[in-house]
Amino acid sequence: MTEKPQRTKKPTWVIDKERARRAAAAETVWLFGLHAVRDALANPAREKLRLVLTQNAMDRLGALPDGITPEITDARTFDRAVPLPPESVHQGAALEVKALKWGKLEDVALSGRGAPLIVALDRVTDPHNVGAILRSAEVFGARAVIAPSRHSAPETGALAKTASGALERQPYLRVGNLADTLIELKDMGYTVIGLDGTGDAELPTALAALPGRALCIVLGAEGPGLRERTRETCDQIVRIPFAADFGSLNVSNAAAIALYAASQAQAPGSQAG
């Protein structure tokens, strides 16, 4: 009698990783608000599952893409028809979607749209801050915003609404390990600059010495700031110069300032200081 070959049992960590991957693939996101829903409907890369509207929202949205059939519900029962967080300002419009897939970091970083400018977020968990940063990243032509898969704001309706449409157009990549990803970017030719109030150099001075360079600006959560390994991985830690000793900026405001300064430093004709 021939013995059947025994199957090799998968390690627990492999099983857990496969389960997490399947769970992530099955996850859906509810976007809400007329602006966020309109932009998602117009995005051919967005997988759309269910559209719920009040008649007023339907009239305001206008013509819908082919193949999209909305569910019309009464404004008084909308909150029961859609599983949104309490007090969501939905304006009578909600769209269930799959999270966007932006592809590999290498492809985005090396050949994405816009200048070679990336924002990295170190454990920034507030979706409103991340949404605002996505808006600034789009305005100033960054190629991507990256954040760790854990301990950062996931793609949610609140994030999409704050991003005001930028989530559909601005790559938001979640990575396994931020420090390792920064090292990958350095290998691709990026200079990695950490933003922190304790930095020795001021941001404008540091950028003036890097005209035309591919840049990654790293920002940490308000309060904790950059983690130690993140700081160690940066090529330089810099600060935004303040006119008075009043504290610190909100992370989304700091990101907007840094993106503007970096975009100017990368502009054709910029000169080293």
UniProtKB/TrEMBL annotation:
Residues 30-103 form the RNA 2-O ribose methyltransferase substrate binding domain. GO terms for molecular function: RNA binding; RNA methyltransferase activity. Keywords: Methyltransferase, Transferase. One of its GO terms (biological process) is methylation. Coiled coil: none annotated. It comes from the Bacteria. CDD domains: SpoU-like_RlmB (cd18103). SMART domains: SpoU_sub_bind (SM00967). GO terms for cellular component: cytosol. This is 23S rRNA (Guanosine2251-2'-O)-methyltransferase. It comes from Paracoccus laeviglucosivorans.
